[in-house]
Amino acid sequence: MSTRKRKEAPLPASAAGLLRFFEEESKGIKIRPEVVIIVGAMLIVLVTIARIFFPL
User: What is the pLDDT of residues 10-53, one digit of tens each?
Assistant: First the structure.
């Protein structure tokens, strides 16, 4: 058996054996989920305050 085969983790089983997980890093912006939730909540608060003080 080659050394490459021994170092790879076994793949999880799926219905057709086609499920694979890759741990390769992808290009793009990396943002933690907590930051996205906080920014979204702040946007909601900002819009609510703007609607209270500047009604249409």
Answer: 655 555 556 666 667 778 888 999 999 999 999 999 999 999 99
The C-alpha atoms of residue 25 and residue 18 are separated, in whole angstroms, by: 21
Interatomic CA distance for residues 40 and 17, integer angstroms: 38
- Check: pTM over 0.85? Answer yes or no: no
DSSP string, 1-56: --HHHHHSPPPPP-SSS---------SS----HHHHHHHHHHHHHHHHHHHHHS--
Query: Do residues 51 and 42 touch, judged by C-beta distance below 8 A?
Result: no
- Distance separating alpha carbons of residues 38 and 46, to the nearest angstrom: 12
